[in-house]
Amino acid sequence: MDVKERYVKLQKKYGLPSYDDMVRDFDIDLIGKDENVMREVQKKMFDKIDFFARTLEALVQPDSTYANMKEASSLNVSEQQLAKRLFAELMHIARAFTINSLEYNEEEFARFISSLNDKWQKIKPELKVILVSLKEAWKKQKDIEEDKGYFG
């Protein structure tokens, strides 16, 4: 049985998000055929959450790389506050992943996956606001102010 068939079976059993939505957002189609689908879906979701948490962390507490300093200094006050809030939300989710991964319970994993997918759908548009702003920062030729550090 391939990953899609196994996932769809679990989807029906636990009311998980659609396979296509999970492929689009979390690349679950890359899960190997012999792997535990629930664990692997959770890992894929964690990888995405962790990636964006690290991206936001570099804004909330930038190290001294040129890229981090330029991007952090390009955010306005409202974007800074949004970045902090989203970072906290993503870190809360990441820690929940860590706790959830201590013991495998298929039913708990299913509830967690569904809940996280709902949260992720709400976070994505807000995250995009920050990411678009970061992209736009690279069009500007403004120098980084020497005294501009983190905004935390």
How would you describe this protein?
- It is a single chain.
- With 152 residues, this protein is mainly α.
- The protein has one domain (3-137).
- The protein is 72% helix and 0% strand.
- It is built from six helices and no strands.
- Helix 5 packs antiparallel against helix 6 (106-137).
- The longest helix has 32 residues, at 106-137.
- The radius of gyration is 18 Å and the shape is elongated.
- The relative contact order is 0.16.
Give the gist of this structure.
The chain is an all-alpha fold and 152 residues long. It has one domain. The protein contains six helices and no strands.
Task: Set out the fold topology.
Blueprint: H1 3-14, H2 19-26, H3 37-60, H4 66-74, H5 77-100, H6 106-137
Helix pairs in contact: 3-5, 3-6, 4-6, 5-6
Main sheet specs: none
**What is the alpha-carbon Rg in Å?**
18 Å
Helix content: over 70%
Query: In the residues, how many domains can be counted?
Result: 1
Inertia-based shape: elongated
Beta-strand residue fraction: under 5%
| Average predicted local confidence, pLDDT | 90
What is the succession of H and E elements?
A: HHHHHH
Oligomer: single chain
The structural class is mainly alpha
End-to-end distance: 49 Å
Count of DSSP strands: 0
Give the uncertain stretches in residue-range form: none
Count every helix, treating DSSP H or I runs of 4 or more residues as helices. Answer: 6
